[in-house]
Amino acid sequence: MTKPIQHKKIPITVLQGFLGAGKTTLLNYILTHNNGLNIGVVVNDFGDINIDSKLVKSKTDKQLELTSGCICCELQTLDLQEAIDQFTHKNSNIDYIIIEASGLAEPRDLAVTLKDTLGIKVRLDSIVTVIDAENLEKNASEFNTARDQIIFTDFVVINKVDLVDEDKIKDIETLVRSFNPRARTIKTIKGQLDVRLILDQDLYKTREFEVTRSTDHSEHVHAHYSTYSWSSTEPLDPMKFQEFVNRKLPTSVYRAKGIVDLGKKGHLRKYIFHLVGVRPEIVWDNWHEDTPETQLVFIGNDLDKKKLKSDLDACIDPTPDSELENGIELQLPKKADL
Questions:
Q1: Which residue in 20, 242, 234, 57 sits closest to 133, CA to CA?
Q2: Buried b (16+ CB within 10 A) or exposed e, 69-92
Q3: Chain-centroid distance, C-alpha 123
Q4: HSE, side-chain direction, 13 A CA sphere, residue 28
Q5: Gyration radius from the chain CA atoms
Q6: Among 65, 64, 53, which residue's Cα sits nearest to residue 28?
């Protein structure tokens, strides 16, 4: 049996969204519906008084504040790095870090800030943009920040869908696709969703599971998500797997993770594959298992499992003992740093 991947880095999820979209509401929901994770929270409000932090204080005692400006401006004082360091010391029991960025934070600058801040102890897992279904079109047309928050994201949470009609929701989804055609969208009421979609909770360890549906209809959680697991003891063809990831993987898949065996064409290495929203990543490691085996898990909305199986089966290498065609040699990605 293949041993699970042991992640040593603490994952970070960034919540961003324009003013009033419902970021704090979503954060509070995550903090009370996270299956027992110890979550460290960095709340960054715009201004000298951090109002948002007061709203989440009752939910967690693992919290720090960044004030007096947007999070991307705090790099000059290293407040963000210091905040992350508070959660990553050797005696910390934090499983996860969530950063709630100011509604006025510039996504481009935020991405640069995070790239410079992240180190050997943490990794960026996902960027989640919360949008206000009532006011998205107005905000996106008037403010570049609101538009860029859709462009620079992995997941778009369309919040307050109970306040608009179905035609408006379809228009919003069309607008989101025009800005970011690969974005995974999640529709919510009061920020309520299945947190496994946006927080990495070692999905690869979970085989087939059913999402628990609450009998309390006051929560209005209308998610219908499922997982699909696929494995193969035969190596996959690198080019076919790349085509599957880049062209055939549907946007109904929100996350994917697993181990991939590319056989001789992959230099007999183990490849660790992640997909978070729009961002696929693959790194290599050495095999520590007796028998190489590909094991992949997908989570998403109304997954077409037959189509996924067919597309993955087509990735199996029919000539595993031969080289890649036309003298192509697979270039190794970066070494795994787990």
A1: 20
A2: bbbbbbbeeebbbebbebbbeeee
A3: 11
A4: 13
A5: 21
A6: 53
Task: Look up residue 292 and give its amino acid.
Answer: P
160 burial type by CB count under 10 A (0-12 exposed, 13-18 middle, 19+ buried): buried
Residue that has been written with the tokens 């994201």 in this structure:
153
Phi and psi dihedrals of 314, rounded to 5? -70, -15
Q: Are 22 and 133 in contact (CB under 8 A)?
A: no
Which residue, 183, 157, 152, is CA-closest to 169?
157
Cα separation, 250 vs 184, in Å, equals: 10
Distances (CA, A) of 272 to 118, 258, 261: 20, 6, 9
**Considering the entire predicted model, what is its pTM?**
0.72
311 vs 36: CA distance, rounded Å:
35
Structural element, H or E, at residue 36: none
- CA-CA distance, 114 to 102, in Å (whole number)? 14
Cα(189)–Cα(27) distance, integer angstroms:
13
Tell me the pLDDT of the chain (338 aa) as tens digits. Answer: 344 444 468 888 999 988 788 888 999 899 888 878 888 888 876 555 455 565 665 666 666 666 555 555 544 444 677 778 888 888 888 888 898 887 666 766 776 667 666 677 888 888 899 999 988 777 666 667 778 888 888 899 999 999 999 999 999 999 999 999 888 999 999 999 988 888 876 653 443 333 333 334 333 333 457 888 999 999 999 999 999 998 898 888 888 888 999 999 988 999 999 888 878 888 888 998 889 999 999 888 888 999 999 999 999 999 998 887 766 666 656 666 54
Q: List, in sequence order, the alpha helices (H) in 57-165.
A: 79-87, 107-117, 136-142, 144-151
What's the residue count for the chain? 338
